[in-house]
Every structure is written in C-alpha cells, then in structure tokens.
Specification:
Elements lengths: L4 H4 L12 H4 L6 H6 L5 E4 L6 H12 L3 E5 L5 H14 L9 E5 L6 H12 L4 E6 L3 H4 L2 H4 L3 E4 L5 H14 L7 E4 L3 H7 L3 H14 L4 E4 L1 H7 L12 H15 L3 H13 L4 H16 L5 H16 L4 H13 L6 H16 L14 H5 L38 H14 L6
Parallel strand pairs: 1-4, 1-5, 2-3, 3-4, 6-7
C-alpha cells in the first residue's frame, strides 16, 4: 500500500519547509540554532497539520542526532524509560550530539508520565521536542515547561496551502504521472481549515477518485468527491476554533440560546471539557468582571467540578454555567484596566516606588527614608486617607473606569466619595 501523499512529500530540509518563517526563515528564532546544531529542549505548540512533526525530523536530520519518537496516545512510563535508556547509551552527557526524543501530543501525557522525563531532560541525556495542539501552560507540568523553550506554529495561510499543493504535484512520483491543473482551490483550502496534512489528504482523495490522467481541480469536483458532513465537529480542525469563538461571543452577547447551542456542538463532538471550562473562566473575568464577580466563582467551580466528574454528567455543569454567564450583566472595565496598565509599564519602564510605599524591614532602610510618611488607612475615618499610590511620573493617571451596570455604579459612587475629582470618574 502506498504511503499517504502527506507522508510522501514531507520536507526533509529547512529549505523545503513551507511556512513558519518567524521560526525557520532567514531571521527565524530557530534557524541559527538548527544550523549550528545547538538545540534546547522545546515545545512546538500549534494547530494540527502545521509541520510540528516535520520540523522535529528536520532538526534531528540537520543536527545529525539519534532520533527517538513516542506518541502520548500509546506510550506509558515504561516506554519512556526504555527510550531514555537507549538514548543514554547512544549519546554523551551534555554533548552537542545528545539524542532527540520527540513526543507527539505531549499534552496527553499524565503528570507521572511527564515527571518521568524530568531527569533525562535536566541531565542532558536527551533533548526533548514535544508537539502539542493545546496551550502548554495548562497541559504541561511547570517543572517540565521551565526546562523547555516554547515555540508557536501558526496555521497555514492561503499562500502556504497553495504552495503545498503545487509542490506535491511537482515532486510526488505518483502525481507526476498525471496532468493536474489547479483551476480552483477555494473548496480545498476551506475544507482543510489551515491543516496542511488534511489538505493533502483531501487532494489525494479527489485525484484518486478520477479514473483518468488529465484532471482539472475545481470547487464543484472537490465538493462532489468529499462528503460535506462527515464529522459533526472536528475538535482538531478549524471548527475547534470557530465554534469556541461562537460560544464565547454568544456569552458576551448575553444570548443563552446561542451559548447552549454551541456548547452542545462541542459536547456532542467530544471536545475536551477542561478546554470548554477554562474558556468560561476567562470569559467570566474578561467579559463579566465586576458587573457580577460571582461569575468567576461559578466558572471556577464548574472547572473544578467537570474535572472531577467527567462526561457525560459534566455537560449538566457546563450548561448551567453557560446560561449563568450569558445572563449575567457584562463589563470589561477591569480587563481594560490591566491592559492599559501593562501598556503604560511597557512605555514607561521601571519607575521608582515612592519612598512612603516602600517596605522597611531593617533599621538602615528606615534611616534612609523607606516607608517614611506612609499613612496607615485604618487609622483614619472610613479607613481612608488621600495618598498617592503611583510613581511621581504617573500621578493622577486613571486605568480603571467603572462600567455602566448597577454593581459598578456602586463602585463609582464609592470612588467618587473617597477621591472626589481626582480620577474624574
């Protein structure tokens, strides 16, 4: 049986590698390291079919290192230890040629499985390259993540996908035996969802379904050969991102019907319940915030609950939380406040902490003025005294503007009673 087209035309060198120019282009952050063969342990994070496995193979080939691969779906701690033992025998400690251990879908490894990698990575027995479609901050244990550099791969754009098709036609020995014209590519690109592997699989299916040597690729031909509704929900493809976007926007738009519909689409498609719950925790703070602070408590409780319960009962908790968030008053005031503050920090740098606000744990610090002049709020009426809590250069700057909802109107009144016109709320 022939290998799939995507495997037959898999790039072997950086020169043939399409896309991810920010990583492996002329000035890419990985280019110099790969050419020098000095590779740190890394996590490649990106959507399916964006070249994570291919890049790992190229790194191993160009650095001339032994290459071991494991899949998190089928490997356990025993498998990891066996590979590490082999790697220790084939590579030297802290040498430039220590073996590469590639782990596909590393986010599926349990904590104990990830723990079993720590010693080998830290001692330099292997250089770890992990591939994940999920945010490694959530799915990779901190101890392992701190020992790796994280590089983000982007979904292929239209230009990249068309380049993949043209290269396949030009380089694949089987396709070379046919005359193929790419008259229309919109359907191919749309069905691929930015996934290069999926694009080549669909393209090969269409070509093989035509029992002739001259083939003109059109949108109608592609759609006639590919079942439109093969999968209700593709949790590794474009729908994964589109449907979670529709779900969050329904919550933000205060539409419980839209929210539960898109939630049901994800549940029926087998989406990771922790992924859904995490996004609701974010929405509770970003889109509801201080208009209803209990929303964050509710979302966090839902995350904890579904983690313990699992499918199918977890859908009950997710549905309750989705409706609660959708029907809560909305405010992004606190979200905008921290964004403005972060931008100010980036623009103004490390401004000095005013002396009255500094900690003074030693006599020397007290003698040079640390904490001098600080007024303890609880010593004053209403537990408040008008002080300046920003660096001198930012005095009077306002980051937080209360939203127009009942709870934040109360906050606005509180601040105005305390600060009068200082923050001009």
């Amino acid at each position: 049986m022939n290998e799939p087209l995507a495997e037959r035309v898999r790039p072997q060198t950086l020169e043939d590698y399409i896309s991810q120019h920010h990583l492996v282009g002329e000035t890419g952050s990985l280019t110099h390291q790969i050419k020098k063969g000095i590779i740190p342990s890394i996590i490649l994070w990106g959507p399916p079919g964006t070249g994570k496995t291919t890049l790992a193979n190229i790194i191993a080939n160009q650095s001339e290192r032994p290459f071991y691969t494991l899949s998190a779906i089928s490997s356990g701690v025993k498998d990891i230890r066996e590979v590490i033992d082999k790697a220790k025998q084939s590579g030297g400690l802290f040498t430039a040629k220590n073996p590469i251990l590639f782990i596909d879908e590393i986010h599926r490894f349990s904590k104990s499985q990830q723990d079993s990698l720590l010693g080998a990575v830290e001692k330099g027995w292997v250089t770890l390259i992990g591939a994940t479609t999920e945010n490694p901050s959530f799915e990779v244990i901190p101890a392992l993540l701190s020992r790796c550099q994280v590089y983000i791969l982007n979904a292929f754009d239209k230009k990249d996908l068309e380049a993949l098709l043209k290269r396949a036609i030009q380089q694949d020995s089987i396709l070379q035996s046919k005359t193929i014209e790419l008259k229309e590519t919109e359907a191919l690109l749309r069905l691929s969802g930015g996934d290069g592997r999926k694009l080549l699989n669909i393209f090969e299916l269409v070509v093989n379904s035509e029992d002739k040597d001259t083939i003109t690729i059109t949108n109608d031909l592609v759609m006639s050969k590919v079942q439109k509704n093969t999968v209700l929900y593709d949790k590794t493809g474009e729908q994964h991102y589109d449907i979670i976007s529709a779900f969050i926007k329904s919550i933000r738009g205060s539409d419980p019907n839209g929210a539960v519909y898109w939630l049901a689409r994800m549940i029926e498609g087998g989406e990771d319940i922790k992924f859904i719950a995490r996004r609701m925790v974010i929405a509770a703070s970003e889109d509801i915030g201080l208009a209803n602070p209990t929303a964050l408590v509710m979302a966090n409780a839902t995350f904890q609950g579904v983690t313990v319960i699992g499918y199918p009962e977890a859908s009950i908790l997710l549905g309750q939380c989705a409706v609660y968030l959708a029907t809560s008053p909305k405010s992004n005031a606190s979200y905008m406040a921290i964004k403005k503050a972060q931008q100010t920090v980036r623009e103004t740098g490390d401004l000095s902490v005013p002396l009255p606000l500094r900690n003074a744990p030693t006599k020397l610090m007290k003698d040079i003025g640390y904490g001098d002049g600080y007024k303890y709020a609880h010593d004053y009426q209403n537990n408040f005294v008008e002080e300046e809590f920003l660096p001198e250069e930012l005095m009077g700057t306002s980051f937080y503007t209360p939203g127009e909802n009942s709870r934040e109107k109360t906050i606005k009144t509180f601040l105005q009673n305390r600060w009068k016109d200082k923050y001009k709320l």
